[in-house]
Amino acid sequence: MSPQLPAQNTATLTYQDRKKVDTSGDQKRVRLVYLFGYTEGVNPVRAIRTVAGLPQRSLADAAETSQPTVAAYESGAKSPTWRTVERMASSVGLACYPAVGTPFTRDQARSLELHAAIAKVLRARGSVVVETARRNISRMRSMNPHASPLLDEWERILEGTTDQIVARILDPSEHGRDLRQVTPFAGVLSPAQRAAVYRSFRNSG
């Protein structure tokens, strides 16, 4: 079982650095953090599924539940218990720990939805998306030198696996929100994909 980390070192919805990832089993155990009040922008079941890179049916099969139940959790039609969230995460080699954070602003929630769409493209076109992000970082450094610490962090994030990058993209913590303010993923989504996210976000509000 993965060791419990001190609360201040547990990043929200992120893979820990390589020293903190338990590789003793067949699958890496990845710590996810369930942000209470997730209806403000973070849906834990969708976050688990996105980090795991699975369709609803596959997550449902792994967690021994039904696809309509997973869909209901993600849409908000049903609310999973904390035990259910833990069980669903564990079924795909992940682990959740509770954390408390400030509510999302509307802009922050929309940014998270955009990055969830970016995560899907990253899974489909990994190296292409990473190279796009790296080129963007180079341009952003000259345009916004004050953002260097966050851009340095993005460069380190991009050295990780696809799963690790996805987890950081979806980090709902205060620091994750700061990172998305200087996202290097401009141009990854097509205009049509961005419009679809905006439309879905407006309809959900």
Could you walk me through the main structural features you see in this protein, from its secondary elements to its overall organization?
By secondary structure, the protein is mainly alpha-helical. The chain contains ten helices and two strands. The protein has helices at 44-52, 56-62, 67-75, 82-91, 106-124, 126-143, 148-157, 162-169, 174-181, 191-204; strands at 30-35, 94-99. It has a two-stranded parallel ribbon with strand order 1-2. Helix 1 (44-52) runs antiparallel to helix 8, helix 5 packs across helix 6 (126-143) and helix 5 crosses helix 10. The longest helix is centred in the middle third of the chain and has 19 residues, at 106-124. The chain is globular. The model is unreliable at 1-29 and 34-40 (pLDDT under 50).
Could you provide a short overview of the structure?
With about 200 residues, the chain is mainly α. It is built from ten helices and two strands, in the order βααααβαααααα. The chain starts with about 30 loop residues before the first strand and ends with a helix.
Largest sheet: 2 strands, parallel
Low-confidence stretches: 1-29, 34-40
User: How many helix segments?
Assistant: 10
Counting DSSP E segments of at least 2 residues, the number of strands comes to 2
Q: In what range is the share of β-strand residues?
A: 5-15%
Topology overview:
Blueprint: E1 30-35, H1 44-52, H2 56-62, H3 67-75, H4 82-91, E2 94-99, H5 106-124, H6 126-143, H7 148-157, H8 162-169, H9 174-181, H10 191-204
Parallel strand pairs: 1-2
Helix pairs in contact: 1-8, 2-3, 5-6, 5-8, 5-10, 6-7
